[in-house]
Amino acid sequence: MSAGRRARRRSLRTDFSPGPRTRLKRTVLWLRRASHVPALLAGGRVREPVFIVGAPRSGTSLLYAIVRSSPVVAHWPGEAHEIWEADFHPALRGWSSNALDASDARDPAAERIKRSFFLVAGPRRRLVDKTPRNSLRIPFVDALFPDARFVLLVRDGRDNVNSLLNAWRTPRYRTYRLPEPHSIPGVDPAWWKFVLYPGWRADADGPLEVVCARQWTASNEHALDALGGIDARRWTTVRYEGLVADPAGVAEEVLSSLGLPFDDSMRRRARELAATPINAVTPPEEGKWRRENRAEIEAVMPLLAPALERLGYR
Asked: What is the pTM of this model?
């Protein structure tokens, strides 16, 4: 295997250093997938899968943790980049971006995605997946799964960009080792983090706040544009701020809209998960951008303003 192919396969893993617990989960998943092979060969397909999308660092991990606690759903451990990008990795597409459209679903490799997800869910469970990069791929996902349900999680762009800035500056969240280093000041030049949006090369010299602003803007605007062409009964929008303020109430609304059961045990689970920060760099706090990265975020307000208005944030 070439060095480039090894690096590409490594970038598909959510956890670069899996521990015993992660390895156990993957073993259990492998056994479950093997048990679903007969149903796949009999013509089984995923029915009404649920796809949670949103900008990176918007709180999708929290919503995903709540939804996947339902006993009637199945999910890939973490984000399923190994399924989505095995044949659609940016390295295989000229490092253009994460964006895919409906025409890409005609690629024979796209059939592998449908098979792979059926082996995860099997014939009796609903699939739930959380992949922020799919905010740029909704037409592709919709073409693969015409009965899919989408949940778009939105967050105030100022707080979202603040979280992205903090995350880019940590050693975590490495996403793609680029073929050539970027020149964004203050961060590791070898790694791109989070979503690779169309036109990213124009921002490869930074500043970082522009990159983060474009990641938030591209994720939300691509998602809204695509969802606008889908039957409104198949998608819903959730505000991060509402989810944090009333996790049980919002979760009940979301699961009910998806046709999934919601009981007292899930209500308790939603409250527990919201009380324990998931995948956070610093504890959640509305308006935190004002004391952490105020100057940087005020500098990119012209980039954020149109999407903020479109999403209903003042």
From this structure: 0.91
